[in-house]
Amino acid sequence: MQSDTKTDPRRIARLLAIQYLFSRLFAERTNIDSTVFEPQTLLEIVDEDKFDKKLYVAIVNGVEKDQTEIDRIITKTAPQWSIDQLNPINLIILRVGLWEGFVGKITPPKVSINEAIELDKVLSSVPNSSFINGVLGKIFEDNSLLN
Q: Which residue among 31, 64, 97, 145 is least crowded, i.e. fewest CB within 10 A of its CB?
C-alpha cells in the first residue's frame, strides 16, 4: 500500500529542505539576513516523526555543498536561462532534484524527477513542470551533462 503523498515522510522532508534553501536564496538576493528560515522554527510545528530527518539533512547539506556544481549543470543543460533569471522556487526545486537524483545519488533519478515535478505543482505560483521535467529529463537522457 502506497502512503499518501501529503503525509509521506520523504515528501515532507523535501518540502522542508526547499523552504530552507529558498529562504537562504531570498536572503542572498535581497541582502536581508533576518529572513533566513531557521529549520528549527518550522520543525517545532511539524511532528518530528512525520518527516525523514536524514533525507532533510542530506538534501540541505548536499545542495549547499555542491551548489556551484549543480548550477553549472543547470546552466549547461538550459543555456538560454541564467541562474539569476530562473524563478527562485523553480531554481531550488531543480537544485534539490538534481542533487538528490544525480549528484548525491540518494534517490533513483526517475523518482527525483517525478518528485521535482510534483513539488513544482504544489509550490509554484505559476507551475513550470515542463521546464523542470525538460532540464532533469535531459540530464537523465544524457549523463555527459553531469561532467
A: 31
CA-nearest of 94, 80, 98 to 123 is: 94
Whether the CB-CB separation of 22 and 92 falls below 8 Å is answered with yes
Measure CA 14 to chain center: 7
What does the CA dihedral 134, 138, 141, 146 come to, rounded to 10 degrees?
-140
Alpha helices in the chain, H assignment, sequence order: 9-30, 39-45, 53-77, 88-98, 109-123, 129-141
CB distance 24 to 36 below 8 Å: yes
The predicted structure's pLDDT at residue 2: 46
- Compute the distance between CA of residue 98 and CA of residue 56 in angstroms, rounded to an integer: 15
Question: Model's pTM, two decimal places?
Answer: 0.84
Regions of the chain where pLDDT drops below 70: 1-6, 33-49
Reading the block at residue 32, the C-alpha cell is: 536581508
CB atoms within 10 A of CB 102: 20
Q: Is 2 left (phi over 0), alpha (psi -120 to 50) or beta?
A: beta
